[in-house]
Amino acid sequence: MQILLQYSSHPVHELEVLPVLISFHVWSNFVRGSQVLHYTDNDSCRFALMKGIGETPVAKCLVASIMEREYALQSKSWYGRVPSHGNPSDDPSRGSFDALVARGSQCRHPLGRAVVLPAIPNGGEDGESRQKPRGVKKKESDSTCQLA
Length: 148
What we know:
The chain is an alpha+beta fold. Helix content is 41%, strand content 15%. It has seven helices and six strands; from the N terminus they run αααβααβααββββ. A hairpin with a 6-residue loop joins strand 5 (137-138) and strand 6. Helix 2 packs across helix 4 and helix 2 (12-26) runs parallel beside helix 5 (57-73). The chain is globular and about 40 Å long. The two termini are 14 Å apart.
């Protein structure tokens, strides 16, 4: 969060883009070679993903990383709009998990924070490191982003 706040006093844009990148890593086995429909209730996020460039330095790095994952996985993405009331992640983003738990997800509270484990099949691991986006850095060798 400290990195995001260095580049934006209200990093909503970045926080809306980040889950798309995470989804490409978590569910890479499911999206590899597929056409993927992504829904967001944030137009700034949707427009950045459609244009292929974010609004801030951090968002630019995140969007570039998403484009790289799309290419590596040979997936094709469509970014659609969903109103907040139709977005299943809207309630959890506000701290309410009742609807997801009612649908079979499990709610855990490690270290006092709620974590919802989705009611989807296990999998999605692609063997890649999950530790990359710590400081968002761009190296010439691997074209990942770097912010100082």
